[in-house]
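Input (NADH-quinone oxidoreductase subunit J):
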Amino acid sequence: MDWVNISFWFFSIVAGISAASVISVRNPVYAVLCLILTFFSVACVWLLVGAEFLGVTLVLVYVGAVMVLFLFVVMMLDIDTSDLREGWVRYLPLGLVVAVVMLVQMLILIGVKARSAAPFPVDNAAAIAADTSNITWLARSLFTEYLLPFEFAAVILTVAVVAAVMLTLRRRPGLKKQDPTEQTMVKAKDRLRMVKMTAEKPVVQVDVKNSGGEEAKP
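Output:
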């Protein structure tokens, strides 16, 4: 029995089902949990074929940034977060399912790696052919042969960040805001105003007590 192919198909099916659930469920919390499972399943596939750096990077970067993505969704859709906090118990079953599936995937991955004494047929094939490490080969290929697609991906991600900020920037009445253009165009005479006032001598009234106990006012 080829455990490598079975594990690959298992990880791929879980990733496909969870990815479809991300765009099909209506609850944003469920979508985030399914997205975590999708990223983790894809990372298991990469670890299975020998791309350890890509798998670990996917877990650390994307799974770690899921909560930031969730915050963007909340800001763009104006979701009432108080309702989400009050009913957090109903999200527990799906969270447990996702955690159990991730644990099973880790155990399967560890078991397959332990059973295979020899490297997989696709395990670091390009790096072994180049007689270098996996990370060195990946960096060399990414910034030489695939430099143009890498730059395109960076531009697309930058445009996506700007678009997300513009979607969340809404003009609400009664909201205090700053205008950097007006702040930089202001002049010194607009910030400082000299006021000329006539000086008046204040009148001070002093009560003086004489020796007889009577009060006298000068």
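Residues 1-81+90-119 form a domain with the Four Helix Bundle (Hemerythrin (Met), subunit A) fold (CATH 1.20.120.1200).
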